[in-house]
Amino acid sequence: MSLATSLTAPLAATGATTLAALAFLGRISLFAISTITHLFRPPFYAREFAHALVQIGWLSLPVVGLTALFTGGALALQIYAGGARFNAEAVVPSIVAIGMARELGPVLGGLMVAARVASSIAAEIGTMKVTEQIDALVTLSTHPMKYLTLPRVLAATLAVPVLVGVGDAIGIMGGYLVGITRLDFNAAAYLKNTADFLELWDVASGMIKGAVFGFIVATMGCFYGMNSGRGAQGVGRATKSAVVAASVMILAANYILTELFFAA
Question: How many CA atoms, within 13 angstroms, populate the side-chain half-sphere of residue 171?
Answer without folding.
Answer: 33
